[in-house]
Amino acid sequence: MRLLIVSGVLAVSAAVAAAGCSSSSSGGTAGNSSSSGGTSSSGTASSSGTASSSGSASSSGSASSSGSASSSGGTSSGGDGGALPTITITDPTAGATVQVTKTASGEVDVAVSFTTTNFTLKAPGACGSVSKTCGHVHLYVDNDTCTPTGAPYNNDGQASPINAIMSNCPNSDVIDGPHTVRLELHADDHSAITDATGATISSSVQFTAAGD
User: Fold this and answer.
1) Are 184 and 122 in contact (CB under 8 A)?
2) In the 3-class helix/strand/coil scheme, how is 44-61 assigned residue by residue?
3) pLDDT value for 172
4) How many CB atoms are located within 10 Å of the residue 89 CB?
């Protein structure tokens, strides 16, 4: 009798234990499936749509606002059109000794070469209007010392070189020696072309004449 009771108790205990295991294991499975819901929580990856917020990178289109650099086109407004003209004697060079030339008529000359910038060389009256960018050149030797009586300058011209007429100097019998030649820019009406200070735009050089 006691053996039957003990056997019954053990059978019930085994049944209870078996039921407890199956329920806990199914619970674990369910727990696992619910934990797999964590995978769905990886939907936070969709929150990485914040990466789309990196569309703020498109806001880097503000870089296109650097197109304001094109406003530096204002620099072009400071073009050469507004620059003053210049003239520079290229020959003779400073301190050089220059052999004079003599024409059949007895004229004694020294050729003076030059360059200009921002200036159109034309014969007097050929520019069509008075401006700072068109005209011709007046040449002087030793200031007005070698300018013929009644003349405004020693010589003039609209192309390089222009002859300095040394025989126009008062003591033309002694042309050999140091001299200073000056070239000036003048407008269509012979008025001097000046810089911002009002000074005549010019170039000068000292040389020594020889061979007379």
Assistant:
1) no
2) HHHHHHHHHHHHHHHHHH
3) 67
4) 21
Q: How far apart are alpha carbons 135 and 121 in whole angstroms?
A: 5
pLDDT at site 178: 95
Mean pLDDT of the chain: 74
pLDDT tens across 40-97, in order?
A: 444 444 444 443 434 444 444 443 333 433 333 332 223 345 799 999 999 999 999 9
What pLDDT is recorded for position 65? 38
Question: CA-CA distance, 98 to 116, in Å (whole number)?
Answer: 23
Instruction: Scan for tokens 């004229």, then name that residue.
Output: 107
The strand pair at 108-117 and 86-91 is best described as antiparallel
User: With 50 as the cut, is the pLDDT of residue 123 above it?
Assistant: yes
The residues near 140 (Cβ < 8 Å, ≥ 6 apart) are 146, 147, 153, 154, 181, 182, 183, 184
